[in-house]
Each structure stands twice: as structure tokens, then as C-alpha cells.
Design a protein that fits this description.
By secondary structure, the chain is mostly helical. The protein has one domain. Helix 3 runs antiparallel to helix 4 and helix 8 runs antiparallel to helix 9. The longest helix is centred in the C-terminal third of the chain and has 37 residues. It is globular. The C terminus is likely disordered.
Length: 294
């Protein structure tokens, strides 16, 4: 049973997290990041279709993606979507890939710029980097994020179509390991290299773990809703889908900033000798105070 003191400390951590979230205006930053992420969805879809065409994986659309869309839309809408996808995969692949990649990197860069500013507020540091150095950092993080996202999409869609029972099983299971791994790389890099002053590696643990777990749960819930509940055949159903998609993107954006704030609060409490039990568990300590008395 958790001691009363530990419960009070965890409750205090949650209250302080809520206060810091408002003080640093993280809701506004999360909204900005979510908006840019929504804007990036269109070129991201175009890029994914272009890559499927360039890699001669058009069958993936017909066997995996299209059948999942068909039950949720009217026949006329489905034929329009299918015809557009086939056209994109069949013609103008190289120019399309270049154009879509540029748009994705642009939108990702704007989103990462907002995240970097939010991280500086979270860690209470001034931006001392030059414009060129900051722009280069944001661009590098944006490119890495785009590559990991596109890689995750391709792995999740292509892996189930691999032929052979053993290979199919390995790739089918492996994709659920590679996806979170790529997400971990992105989150770790943004948390570490985004702020003007790099936090210690040990403080990119609890928040990063929170980001990954919540994102996976939110993604599974959204996928379940989109495949079993969502209805695109009516105006109300289409608006509901857009609303849920917006909330999913916002939650994905907000949880990254929440994770960074959790890391900062844990660091501050540890420096005061008030490390919560959560930090002790993550770092494998038997007692929350063992690190402060070593």
C-alpha cells in the first residue's frame, strides 16, 4: 500500500503539472502544433501514395487500404478516392514525391519550431542560439520526424503483405516493435536537442515513456473507432470524423509537451530531495530517496 506521504507527493505533482501547463501556455502551443500536423496530413498521404507507386507496391492499396475505406463511404465517394489514388500511384511519381516531401518538411518544421519554443518555456531557458543554428536544428528534427513517420506508415502497411508464413509472422509482429521504436527515437531527439539548453539524459525518461504509452493507447482507440464506429456516409458522420481526428492530433501534440513538463517537474523535485516514487521506479531505485542519500 502506498504511504500517505507518497500519495500527497504524487497529488502535488499532478496539481503542479496542471499549474505549469497553464502558466507556460502549453495549450496554445499544443493547438499550434496540432494545426500544423493536420496541415501535414494531406501532403503526407500524397507522399505515401507516391512511395507505394515508386516502390511497386500498388497492390498494398488494393488489398489493405481500399478495402478498409470501402465500407465507411458511399460507392460514389469510394470510386472517386480509389481513382485518385490509382492515378497518383501511376503517374508523375518522382515530381510528386519531391513536392510532397517539401510540403511535409515545411509543415513539420513549423510544428517543431512551436515545440522548441514551448520546451524553452518549460525548462525556463532563454533562446541563445543564432537564427541559423536554431533553424538548422528545427530542420534536422523535422526531417528526422518525417522520415520516422513515413517509415512507420510504410512498415505498418507493407509488412502484413509479405509472402511466406514465417516471414509474414516475423514482419507482422516486428512492425509493432519498430513503430514504437521509431516514435521513441523522435521523442528522445526532440526532448534532448529541441531546447536551447540540453537537459540531462536521465530526465528524458518518465516524460518520454508517458508520451509513447499515451500515444499508442490513443492511436489504438482512434483506429478502433475509425474502423468500427465512424460513418462517412452522412454529413453529420463526416463532421464527427473530422472532429475526432482533430482531437486525436491535438492529444498527440499535447502529450509531448506534457511529457516534457513531467520531466522538468521531476528534475526540480529531485534537486529539492522530494523525488516521487515514479522517478524511483523508472530509475530502478528501491527507495525514492536513495538517490539523494547516496
Amino acid at each position: 500500500m502506498q504511504p500517505p506521504v507518497s500519495k500527497r507527493r504524487n497529488a502535488s505533482l499532478l496539481r503542479q503539472l496542471a499549474d505549469e501547463f497553464g502558466e507556460h501556455r502549453l495549450f496554445i502551443y499544443a493547438t499550434s502544433v496540432g494545426f500544423r500536423a493536420l496541415m501535414a496530413l494531406v501532403p503526407l498521404v500524397l507522399l505515401a501514395l507516391g512511395l507505394l507507386g515508386a516502390l511497386n507496391l500498388k497492390a498494398t492499396w488494393h488489398t489493405s487500404v481500399a478495402p478498409a475505406i470501402r465500407p465507411h463511404v458511399t460507392p460514389a465517394v469510394f470510386h472517386a478516392i480509389d481513382a485518385s489514388a490509382v492515378t497518383i500511384m501511376s503517374t508523375g511519381t518522382a515530381p510528386l514525391i519531391v513536392f510532397a516531401t517539401a510540403l511535409v518538411v515545411w509543415d513539420m518544421s513549423l510544428a517543431l519550431a512551436a515545440i522548441v519554443e514551448a520546451l524553452n518555456r518549460i525548462h525556463d531557458v532563454e533562446e541563445t542560439r543564432s537564427f541559423v543554428r536554431r533553424a538548422a536544428t528545427v530542420l534536422a528534427l523535422a526531417v528526422m520526424t518525417a522520415v520516422c513517420v513515413i517509415g512507420s506508415v510504410l512498415i505498418m502497411t507493407v509488412a502484413p503483405r509479405v509472402q511466406g508464413h514465417v516471414v509474414h509472422f516475423v514482419f507482422g509482429v516486428g512492425r509493432w516493435l519498430v513503430g514504437p521504436l521509431l516514435l521513441m527515437v523522435v521523442v528522445g531527439a526532440v526532448m534532448r536537442f529541441g531546447p536551447a539548453e540540453r537537459p540531462e539524459k536521465r530526465w528524458a525518461s518518465a516524460g518520454s515513456l508517458l508520451v509513447i504509452v499515451v500515444w499508442i493507447v490513443a492511436s489504438l482507440l482512434f483506429k478502433f473507432w475509425a474502423t468500427n464506429v465512424a460513418d462517412f456516409k452522412s454529413a453529420v458522420g463526416s463532421l464527427t470524423v473530422l472532429l475526432f481526428l482533430s482531437w486525436y492530433v491535438f492529444v498527440s501534440s499535447a502529450i509531448l509537451l506534457v511529457g516534457a513538463q513531467v520531466d522538468e517537474l521531476l528534475r526540480e523535485k529531485a534537486e529539492r530531495g522530494e523525488s516521487p516514487r515514479l522517478l524511483a521506479v523508472i530509475h530502478g531505485q528501491s527507495s525514492p530517496r536513495s538517490s539523494t542519500h547516496s
